[in-house]
Design a protein that fits this description.
single chain; mainly alpha; Ferritin; 8 helices; about 0% strand; elongated
Length: about 230
């Protein structure tokens, strides 16, 4: 299969436009717009790094050990995401924006410290859900016009979904009885305690194969007592 564009033309363009780096004439998106969008994602990741890291140091309570370790792991993964995004912005000819004042304004998620372990978990879950929705929109925007950036955001999105799932599990573990408060973060079909799964089946509603037989059999102890009574007679 040959090139759709004459190879000599491609070679000539590559030499003439050498200062453009990775950006070639067939790039279909506006690089300034792409870098702006990616800088918003970068800001979101940086804020998530800081929030998770703060929660790692401040976590307390009987559930601290497992949850704090997860906070630290998530912080490291969010930093890796930030590095990938920053590198891609540079490849596209832009400048990764890391000015703290600007980062706080551009981040999709908020930096909320929380006053308890449950608060920390809840705030991280909210932030992850925001990132999931906005990153999914980014994936659609890049589409086939920028498959490299799209694949990068798809990989990051997959990890954010894992983070959200982790936080949801921890939240139910820390506040198992506070379903009214925690359920507001989810759609109805996402709330595990509103499902019938795992509940004991009532006898009257159970399938015939699960119903206990009506005629009760005597236990070994009852049989032994009856035999002794008979001998005495």
């Amino acid at each position: 299969m040959g090139f759709l564009t004459d190879i000599k033309t491609i070679r000539a363009r590559a030499r003439k436009e050498i200062n453009e780096g990775a950006i070639t004439p067939d790039y279909l998106l506006d690089t300034d717009q792409v870098c702006k969008i990616l800088n918003e994602a970068l800001a979101t990741e940086i804020v998530c790094v800081l929030r998770y890291r703060f929660h790692y140091f401040m976590a307390s309570g009987i559930h601290k050990e497992g949850v704090a370790a997860e906070f630290l792991e998530h912080s490291k993964e969010e930093q890796a995401h930030a590095d990938l995004i920053a590198e891609r912005i540079k490849q596209l000819g832009g400048k990764p924006e890391m000015n703290p004042a600007v980062v706080a304004e551009r981040s999709h998620s908020e930096y909320v410290e929380g006053t308890s372990l449950a608060d920390m978990i809840r705030e991280n879950l909210v932030a992850e859900r925001i990132a999931i929705q906005t990153y999914r929109e980014m994936v659609k925007f890049f589409g086939e016009k920028d498959p490299t950036t799209r694949r990068m955001m798809e990989e990051i999105l997959a990890v954010e979904e894992e983070h959200a799932d982790d936080m949801a599990d921890f939240l139910f573990a820390v506040e198992p009885d506070n379903i009214d408060k925690t359920s507001k973060l989810f759609f109805p079909d996402e709330v595990s305690t509103k499902s019938d799964a795992g509940r004991k089946v009532e006898t009257e509603n159970a399938p015939a194969s699960q119903k206990k037989p009506s005629n009760k059999k005597s236990s070994p102890k009852n049989k032994l007592a009856k035999n002794k009574s008979a001998k005495k007679k």
